[in-house]
Every structure is written in C-alpha cells, then in structure tokens.
Amino acid sequence: MSSVLVVEDESAIAELIAINLRHAGFEVTVATDAESANREVDRVLPDLVLLDWMLPGQSGVQLARRWRADVRTRELPLIMLTARSDEADKITGLDAGADDYLTKPFSTKELLARIRAVLRRKAPEALDTAVEVSGLRLDPATRRVTRRIGEDMREVKIGPTEFRLLHFLMTHPERVHSRAQLLDRVWGDHVFIEERTVDVHVKRLREALAPVQCSALIETVRGAGYRLTQKLNSLAA
Ligand code: CA
Question: Among 56, 97, 136, 219, which is least packed, fewest CB within 10 Å?
C-alpha cells in the first residue's frame, strides 16, 4: 500500500483529500504545518507528499526547498497544491523541486491520476504494477514471485521483508543503494534499525532466489551497498 503525506492547514480540504485517497487504497497521514510535516518525514519517508503552498509559518515552497537540499529527501515525490494559478507561481513551485503542480479546486480523478504519474516516474515500487527482470517476475497484486525455467513456471518462496526488498530493487535496477537508503525505502525506518539487518535480509533473499537461479541478480557493491543487475545472462547464476 502506498503512503501519502498530506500537508494542508485547512482541515476541511485535508480531510476531503484524505478520505478520497484512503478510498483509492492509499495510506494517508495529515500534517497541518511545515514543522509537523518535517517531523513526519524525518520519522518515516512517505511514498509521496501533497504539499500545500500556503501554510502557517514556513511555506510549502520553503519546505520543498529544504527537502530538496537534503540528500535523504532529495528524491521524495512531491506534488504542490495551491490556489494560485499564475504561471510565475507554478514556475516557483517547480523550481523549488515539486514534481508536479495542482491548482485548487481540483477533481479527485485528476489528483489520483497525477499521483500515479509521479509515482510511476519516481517510486514505481509504491504501485501494484508487476515487474520483470531477467525472466524473474514479481507481482505486487498477487504477492507472487515466479520464473519460467524451460517449460516450468517456478514460484519463489519468499518472506514479506525479502519481497519488499526485491520489489524495491527490481523497480530501481542497476542503481547502487546504500544500507541506509534501503532501510528508509524498504523498512521505512532509518534510525532504529541497524544496518546489518539489511545484510541479513539480502542473504535470505539470495537464498530464496537460488532455486530459480537468480541469486546473482543481487550484487554487493563493496563499501557502497547493493545493486540489482539486469545482466543475469552473462553471469553464472
Ligand atoms: Ca493552506
């Protein structure tokens, strides 16, 4: 389930957005000002933030700039919400690092379409779309991982944490992820879980993938972290 943080000081609007997003299957948290939004993101990274421009105290634009300046939140999917419709304001919002921009009032349909578009681009692991790498297929909707070997469709027996880890790696192939980044994006906790937990689950994931000859998909990058390679064929799996 994808998580969305709604940052909006007008409670009626925040509540309406929250109801519609929950109805569409999102997990929603509401923050009413920049400080509490920042605390929330500090605690756990949401999959996406809907950020109102006009907030009491620090504005949404200032908060967006702050997040974009921080390596941990630099890639956080972000849609700005505002009553402003001037082109200059849109440009300011996008320059501040917003991935998209929505002018109030907007329809729920449009909001959901834009959320899905930003997630597809920036956080595909938050969507229920099946992914396939080197013949290994992961389907979030059915929670199944399979690989065809000859005539056989083999199913991979995999634990829930290894499933989420594999999903994240498969939707961000060829990129090196540090243990801290994986804790943030897969476990949702970068403070209270030890980094060696990642190593334990990577080991389990490789063991789970061994029967379908896919262990070698998960590469260790010395001193940096882990990477999922798409070039399995060239490897002795
Ligand atoms: Ca507002």
Answer: 56
